[in-house]
Amino acid sequence: MRTLFNTYLNKQTDSAPLAVFRIGFGFMMCLSIIRFWYKGWIESVYITPKFHFSYYGFEWVQSIGNYTYILFFLCGLSAFFVAIGFKYRVSILTFFVSFTYIELLEKTTYLNHYYFISILSFLLLFLPAHRYYSIDCIITQKSYKNIPAWTIDSIKLLLAIVYFYAGLAKLNSDWLQKAMPLKIWLPSKYDLPILGETLLQEDWFHYAMSWSGMLYDLMIPFLLLYRRTRWFAFVLVVIFHVFTRVLFPIGMFPYIMIISSLIFFEARFHHKIISVFKKGISYVSKSAFGNILRLDHFRYPKNSKTPYIITIFFVIQLLLPFRYMLYPGELFWTEEGYRFSWRVMLIEKMGHTTFKIVDKKTNASFYVNNTDFLTPLQEKQMSFQPDFILEYAHYLGDHFTAQGYKEVQVFAESYVALNGRLSQPFVDKEVDLYREKESFKHKHWILPFKDDIKGL
Which CA distances in Å does 335 have to 172, 330, 408, 443? Predict the structure, then answer.
């Protein structure tokens, strides 16, 4: 086994696919940052709110006020430098740290594709994506024709995990037997030209979309890997992601996945892409790249720990999505172990949660107006997610304790509707949430789900 592992580590492949991936990833990330800035979301999401929801263990990540613009500037600039391969190691590290810090600032913005970008940029820290067709090649006057095959395979594997795990997550009774939540979302798009008042209103179409979405996610990694079906698979990738972009406001993610899927194509295809870049900047290419020393193979040092770090990284990625099995109750209801598991667009939850503040010493009580403390987005996300409810309860407890109230207690009354069902009581209203501590343990104060959803 060790011999096979070492043989694989020494296998070489053309470096062009990784260079094209670097260019595409960098430019897409740069455009994403510009778009976020242009939309005014930096101020509305990260500066205006009085309170920010944090991830457990990362409470130390705090808002830096108006300096957040500088953080976004560094993130966008580093993404551009990644694309052109300038000071690549510093640039990809800066991008990873700045982008991840931004995402940790406010939990309400969590999306699977933001998590994907963070872990992908972490992976790129260890890959020689700047060893071919980059500014770094011009600076060092060295370019490598071949790189270890596992460096490209690692990106393919990460993409395969994202797709395949998303497909596994769709193997549940709500998605396949009830077409939920697509049966809620698709009819609401009635204003779309042609499709809105016809197909999107049809029950059979909701089921067709559910089942085809499941099959697409499960099969697309294998179709992309197999040379004879690769172009067919790529067409499916384009159709699928363009269609989802039209239906749902998920930003740049569809385009990122389309560009990323190019990594599965042969090296000669990527050389054609690079030749297009060369024609676009023909004078610069000839003068800058003309005298570069072209070396055959780039190899990591024999004592390099990089392959082992990448192996540990993938073991975590393979196991983390299954941590929900450690918790009792329905995953879609409790959401304990739901994030970071590639469960994409599987639930539609609506909640209404009110908080009662009690001064235990005087027995005086009053209800909180959530809009005094939260933005509409924050209140919406808080209303049906247990860790949000607990964190907000502690924030309220601290706030009113600072206001002079004695022995503050915080109680929540919450009702949540899941995937078209009638709303049900969500939180035990007799539990003082201010006395409950956040941890990886099951939250005993979440009331049981009065239904059954079968599946993974």
Answer: 15, 8, 28, 11
User: 248 burial class (0-12, 13-18, 19+ CB within 10 angstroms)?
Assistant: middle
* Residue type (1 letter), 57: G
- The 10 Å CB-count burial string (b at 16+, else e) for 423-450 is ebebbbeebbbbebeeeeeebebbbebe
Evaluate whether 434 touches 408 at the Cβ level (below 8 Å): yes
Which SS3 state, helix, strand or coil, does residue 427 take? Answer: strand
Interior/surface letters 203-229, b for 16+ CB within 10 angstroms, e for the rest: eebbbebbeebbebbbbbbebbeeeee
Name residue 377's amino acid.
Answer: L
Tokens of 277: 């870049």
Q: What is the pTM of this model?
A: 0.93
pLDDT in tens, the chain (456 residues): 667 777 887 899 999 999 999 999 999 999 999 999 999 999 999 999 989 999 999 999 999 999 999 999 999 999 999 999 999 999 999 999 999 999 999 999 999 999 999 999 999 999 999 999 999 998 988 899 999 999 999 999 999 999 999 999 999 999 999 999 999 999 988 888 888 788 889 999 999 999 999 999 999 999 999 999 999 999 999 999 998 888 887 778 889 999 999 999 999 999 999 988 877 676 555 555 656 777 778 888 888 899 999 999 999 999 999 999 999 999 999 999 999 999 988 999 999 999 999 998 888 899 999 999 999 999 999 999 999 999 999 999 999 999 988 899 999 999 999 999 999 999 999 999 999 999 999 999 999 999 999 987
Q: Where are the domains of the chain?
A: 2-321, 348-435
Residue type at 290 in one-letter notation: G
Nearest to 177 by CA among 151, 147, 210: 210
